[in-house]
Write a structure and sequence with these properties.
Blueprint: E1 2-5, E2 16-20, E3 26-30, H1 32-36, E4 44-48, H2 53-68, E5 74-78, H3 97-108, E6 112-116, H4 122-126, E7 130-133, H5 136-146, E8 152-155, H6 158-171, E9 175-183, E10 190-195, E11 204-212, H7 216-227, E12 232-240, E13 253-257, E14 267-269, H8 272-275
Parallel strand pairs: 1-4, 4-5, 5-6, 6-7, 8-9, 8-11, 11-12, 12-13, 13-14
Antiparallel strand pairs: 2-3, 9-10
The structure holds 5-O-phosphono-beta-D-ribofuranose (RP5).
5-O-phosphono-beta-D-ribofuranose binds near residues 210 and 217.
């Protein structure tokens, strides 16, 4: 398998130049000396973030180049999927953005599309020949680094609960704590934080979720858990956006990956550990 690593191009000798035209558009150019040496039947994978629209275009440009060079087997490994959270029409007048991204990817006809911890099952339902890579190994690595036993796993909302139960059986975790919240889709305001747990006296709680964006979900959940006696609250999120910074009230330690971007000030695992 030959890898086009668009995430850490500085770390490997890749046959590809990622440049930018003066007007800001992505400009890709394969290094033909290296490419010519490859058998066209060699499976090729493109490892990329799709954090912004230009990332998607770059991937499509590389795929198009590989198509006209007649490579037969091209896979896409996606660390972060553009529009994964827009997995339905939220409000009147808004698009079904994930469907648009899926249609574009489907048109490119990758042999396989691997997606690291997508927000919901809608991504893999819409993208042809795709499957999800779970966060299990990443969370296991974070817990090993953190090193405190025992702990309870916390699902911050109903949407994450099914995944948390699968994770708990993978890790052999004894306890799962279920939390709930409500989000006003118009304002984004979070309210009504609740949990099924009665007493968390002295416990270490590990909240696991796909994305930390503004962090409101996790500040609210941490306040709830600490109000029930939790001694420590750790946050483990696959995709660290941290739009309001990586410091979140009530969270004692944060683990993430560089799936969306490199994050300063947070313990960050390289995504290539989980996607290759
Ligand atoms: O509260 P913030 O960090 O803004 O948003 C993160 C939450 O929003 C959801 O899409 C994610 O799955 C996560 O539960």
């Amino acid at each position: 398998m030959y890898t086009f690593n668009l995430i850490y191009p500085n770390l490997s000798d890749i046959p590809f130049h990622a440049m930018v035209f003066p007007d800001g558009q992505p400009h890709v150019k394969l290094k033909m000396e290296a490419i010519k040496a490859l058998d066209r039947a060699t499976p090729v994978r493109i490892l990329s973030r799709l954090s912004h629209a230009n990332d998607l275009m770059t991937v499509l440009f590389v795929k198009n180049t590989l198509d006209y060079l007649e490579f037969e087997h091209v896979e896409l490994h996606v660390s972060y999927l553009l529009a994964a959270r827009m997995d339905r029409v939220m409000l009147d007048g808004e698009p079904f953005s994930l469907k648009v991204v899926a249609q574009v990817l489907n048109q490119a006809q990758f042999r396989k599309v691997k997606i690291f911890d997508p927000h919901s099952e809608v991504s893999t339902a819409l993208i042809d020949r795709s499957y999800a890579v779970s966060n299990h190994t990443f969370v296991q690595g974070a817990l090993k680094d953190f090193g405190v036993e025992p702990y309870c796993l916390v699902s911050p909302d109903a949407g994450a609960l099914k995944k948390i139960h699968k994770l708990a059986s993978f890790l052999g975790a004894a306890e799962v704590v279920e939390c709930m919240k409500e989000r006003d889709l118009r304002t984004g305001a979070l309210t009504h934080f609740k949990t099924t747990a009665d007493d968390l006296e002295g416990k270490t709680c590990v909240i696991v979720d796909d994305i930390c964006d503004g962090g409101g979900t996790f500040a609210g959940t941490a306040a709830l858990l600490k109000g029930k006696g939790a001694a420590m609250v750790v946050l483990v999120v696959s995709h660290g956006i941290f739009s309001k910074g990586p410091v979140i009230d009530g969270i004692d330690k944060i683990y993430t990956t560089d799936s969306y971007r490199l994050v300063e000030g947070v313990h960050t695992f390289p995504i290539s550990n989980f996607l290759l």
